[in-house]
Amino acid sequence: MQYSVEVRKTKNKGNGVFALKNFKKGETIEICPVLTLNTKERKRCECTLLAFYMYPWRSTRSGAVVLGYGSIYNHSYEPNADWYPKTATENMTFKAIKPIKKGSEISVNYNGEPDDLTPIDWFEVEK
């Protein structure tokens, strides 16, 4: 199997996901299975390291841990990818929203919309 992405250490953000090939705008980067969490399970996870890796799922009270590299993509206010939850199939699709060159870090906006500039209040955003 040939992979299109890999995890590498970044200078200031810990791990990150990097392109092993060029991606065109609109191209699927990865389809990841998810572990869904009900409200009670999400609340328990918020007291653990998983709090920094969960995505909202169906509502902001429930959640999902995205497998594959899904929970490792770093945040950017100028992302080159976006995430699309597929609740019927319980997976998360990551797609390029602009061309991504081989070797580049792939980033998403944690706010859920690529152009949402709302401050992230649970960690320091690197410029």
What's the arrangement of secondary structure elements?
Blueprint: E1 5-9, E2 15-19, E3 28-37, H1 39-45, E4 54-57, E5 59-66, E6 74-75, E7 81-86, E8 91-96, E9 105-108
Parallel strand pairs: 6-9
Antiparallel strand pairs: 1-2, 2-9, 3-5, 3-8, 4-5, 7-8
Name some characteristics of this structure:
9 strands, 127 residues, 5-stranded antiparallel β-sheet, mainly beta, globular, Beta-clip-like
- The helix content, as a percent range, equals under 10%
> What is the count of β-strands?
9
Indicate the CATH topology.
Beta-clip-like
* Percentage of residues in DSSP E strands: 35-45%
Identify the quaternary structure here: single chain
| Largest sheet descriptor | 5 strands, antiparallel
Termini, distance in Å?
35 Å
Count of spatially separate domains? 1
CATH level 1 name: Mainly Beta
- Tertiary shape: globular
- How many distinct helices? 1
- What is the alpha-carbon Rg in Å? 14 Å
Compact description:
This protein is mainly beta and 127 residues long. It contains one helix and nine strands; from the N terminus they run E-E-E-H-E-E-E-E-E-E. The longest helix is centred in the first third of the chain and has 7 residues.
Overview of this protein structure:
By secondary structure, the chain is mainly beta. It has one domain: SET domain (Beta-clip-like, Beta Complex). Helices cover 6% and strands 39% of the residues. The chain has one helix at 39-45; strands spanning 5-9, 15-19, 28-37, 54-57, 59-66, 74-75, 81-86, 91-96, 105-108. The strands form two sheets. Strands 4-5-3-8-7 form a five-stranded antiparallel sheet. It is globular.
